[in-house]
Write a structure and sequence with these properties.
The chain is an alpha/beta fold. The protein folds into four domains: about 90 residues, 3-Layer(aba) Sandwich (GIY-YIG endonuclease); about 180 residues, 3-Layer(aba) Sandwich (Rossmann fold), CATH 3.40.50; about 230 residues, P-loop containing nucleotide triphosphate hydrolases (Rossmann fold, 3-Layer(aba) Sandwich), CATH 3.40.50; about 90 residues, 2-Layer Sandwich (Alpha-Beta Plaits), CATH 3.30.70.60. The chain has a seven-stranded parallel sheet with strand order 9-10-8-11-12-7-13, sandwiched between helices. The chain has a six-stranded mixed sheet with strand order 5-2-1-4-3-6. Strands 14-24-23-15-22-21 form a six-stranded parallel sheet, sandwiched between helices.
Length: about 675
């Protein structure tokens, strides 16, 4: 019996690729890219074959035999493996830790029951290859120019579609897709959105436009069986359009010809746990690898993308006008809270505007990016506040549930009847969350139909979509919401947006805070007046002279971005500097700091700046102390070369600390 050596990538924090023996005759070896079942430690695990060798450096006595090769599944392509290898190298993670989480969970089971069932179900589905679009509306000149530029692009072409809210970017995507599919009926198109709640509306639009094509959706709200079926449809090339959130960038798409990244500026495209990758950045690399166009669309592009457009790396396409005839951008007004004192969080000007919309039968949206009833419960007698016992954070008051809840570690406690320190029974909520605003509105407008949409009100599967559907049907007069309602939704009857408490972001230590606040305000303002009705946005602030608010009033992203880029250049911050962040977690802060000091001294470099370790802003989470160390360089290759050597040095350090490295961090 002849044997070959299968090098198999497994999902493990170790080096990630392990040698296994497999019986095979010459010319009858398994294919690179196939899945294999092996014994790993005390468990059985599924991995992907990344190479086949005739010999191994592992002693023969220690080599294990692979248990099975999944022949019923077509191998993952070399292009897919190249993407996984690039991500592993760039983010300095084991190959298996990148490759395997991108596969459906049911595909990683030790048995093939779920795989066989999904393959049988998929085989029964009728192939639909009619790419003829239906109900194609006429485009305005700007839209037509953008759609033709995307649909006619050849080779690797990164395009930044900069369009004001309501300018019809979705229609441009759809008509560009129609052109690509008309040219190549077998083509696959990947469309990414930042959040799950944005998929139903876009999915409905795609199905209506391309009724003869198979559409696959990939996001975490799917059941494991659904995700397996949709992933297989994409892997087999049968699904022509694939719609998903950030994880979809790692899906197997053998016939990929176009990538669309909607709301490309959104921080949700960055994974914040485990493999901390940017789906947007990997999408650009994947388009370059395949030599295909990629579209990055936004009304408020990220400064990195805007900089690339300004320097000619990306081609900029512009949509300056709203798509609906006679529709104009809403008028933005600032309400000075020092002069117009708020009642229950709402100024007189905003209350008057709400009454006008109720009388006219139009809808209003109040945007407050803070869920719960109040950020903190306090005792005015002794100064006690509801701190979390496990985190450096306050416990948020959730009054309808009679709970104090930590939004970081999920600790829940009953609301105390009296102050735990002095016994005072008159405990008071400080500040306002969406629940408290809802309560106040119900008292002030008892006849109004009021709906709150946030992470608390939409916990059950399908509840978010049901809530948005009720808004679209006109069954809601006043909508209260967090960032969930700020982007992507086309509310036809919405004519008023009120923004509550945006000022805190003006004084954040995060240098990206102003960029994010501007994007939030522009996005939520863009929900108003999309159907041509006269609309306005009222922003309550105590700092009405701040330049950021002036830019929002003028809808002037160009000037705002140019000024912010000039500041970043002067301060040597991204996109003019490249960064990586080393985080350390330990039972005590001193231990985490000591490890980072060792890390700082482990490797010298003349091309990289290694800063001193500091505690993280949120120092303690779930009784774990956290610190960080920032490394920077004005050269990406120099930073990557340093990190490659540094990670080896870090692994050699003896420590009880749990550490992680993030390349291109968004939160510092």
């Amino acid at each position: 019996m002849s044997y070959c050596i299968l090098q198999i990538a497994l999902d493990t924090p170790l080096d990630g690729v392990f040698d296994y023996r497999w019986p095979c005759e010459p010319g009858d070896e398994p294919a690179v890219g196939q899945l294999a079942l092996v014994n790993f430690g005390r468990r059985e695990a599924v991995g992907v074959i990344v190479a086949i060798r005739q010999d191994s450096q592992v002693p023969a006595g220690k080599l294990k035999d692979a248990l099975a090769v999944r022949n019923q599944l077509a191998p993952l392509s070399g292009q897919w493996l190249a993407l996984a290898r690039f991500a592993a190298a760039y983010y300095h993670r084991p190959l298996g830790e990148v490759a395997m989480p991108g596969l459906p969970k049911n595909l990683r089971l030790s048995t093939t029951v779920a795989l066989d069932r999904a393959l049988k179900k998929l085989a029964k589905l009728e192939d639909t290859h009619d790419a003829t679009p239906a109900n194609m509306p006429a485009l305005n000149p700007e839209q037509r120019q953008a759609a033709d530029a995307i649909g006619g692009a050849q080779g690797f072409t990164p395009l930044l579609l900069y369009g004001v809210t309501g300018s019809g970017k979705t229609e441009v995507y759809l008509q560009a897709c129609a052109q690509v599919l008309a040219r190549d009926p077998d083509a696959q198109i990947l469309v990414l959105v930042p959040e799950i709640n944005l998929t139903p509306q876009l999915e409905a639009n795609i199905r209506t436009r391309f009724p003869g094509l198979m559409l696959a959706t990939l996001h975490s709200s799917l059941s494991e069986g659904e995700r397996m079926l949709h992933w297989l449809a994409a892997h087999q090339g049968r699904a022509r359009i694939i719609l998903g959130t950030r994880l979809a960038i790692l899906s197997s798409l053998p016939k990929l010809k176009l990538i669309v990244i909607d709301e490309e500026h959104d921080p949700s495209y960055k994974q914040q746990e485990g493999l901390r990758y940017s789906a947007r950045d990997l999408a650009v690399w994947r388009a370059h690898q395949l030599g295909i166009p990629i579209v990055l669309g936004s009304a408020t592009p990220s400064l990195e993308s805007w900089h690339h457009a300004q320097t000619g790396r990306y081609r900029k396409l512009e949509l300056r006008e709203r798509a609906v005839r006679d529709a104009v951008l809403p008028r933005v007004r600032l309400v000075d809270m020092e002069r117009d004192k708020p009642k229950d969080g709402l100024t007189g000007a905003l209350l008057h505007a709400l009454r006008q919309r109720l009388e006219a039968g139009e809808q209003s949206l109040l945007f407050l990016n803070r869920r719960g009833y109040a950020p903190v419960l306090c005792c005015e007698s002794c100064g006690w506040i509801s701190n979390c016992t496990r985190c450096t954070a306050n416990m948020v008051l959730h009054r309808p549930e009679h709970r104090l809840r930590c939004h970081h570690c999920s600790l829940e406690l009953r609301i105390p009847h009296s102050c735990p320190t002095c016994g005072n029974i008159d405990l008071q909520p400080l500040g306002r969350g969406t629940q408290r605003v809802e309560e106040g509105l119900q008292a002030m407008f008892p006849q109004a139909r009021i709906l709150r949409i946030d992470a608390d009100s939409t916990r059950r599967k399908g509840s978010a979509q049901a809530a948005f559907d009720s808004v679209h049907r006109g069954e809601v007069d006043i909508l209260i919401g967090t960032q969930m309602v700020a982007k992507g939704h086309d509310f036809k009857k919405l004519t008023l947006v009120g923004v509550l408490n945006p000022d805190t972001a003006l004084f954040s230590q995060d240098y990206r805070a102003s960029e994010r606040l501007f994007a939030q305000l522009m996005q939520v303002a863009g929900r108003a007046g999309r159907a041509g009705l006269e609309s306005e946005v009222l922003i309550q602030s105590r700092y009405c002279t701040h330049p950021l608010y002036g830019a929002v009033m003028r809808h002037d992203y160009d000037r705002f971005a140019s000024d912010l880029l000039a500041e970043r250049h002067q301060a040597a911050l991204p996109p003019y500097m490249y960064q990586a962040l080393l985080r350390a977690e330990a039972p005590e802060l001193a231990i985490a700091i000591a490890f980072l000091e060792q890390a700082r001294d482990a490797l010298a470099s003349s091309t990289v700046t290694i800063n001193d370790p500091i505690p993280m802003t949120m120092t303690r989470v779930h009784n774990v102390e956290r610190a960080q160390l920032l490394v920077e360089s004005n050269s990406r290759p120099a930073l990557q070369a340093f990190l490659t050597a540094w990670v080896d040095a870090l692994r050699a350090l003896k420590s009880r600390v749990r550490w992680s490295l993030e390349v291109d961090p968004l939160d510092i």
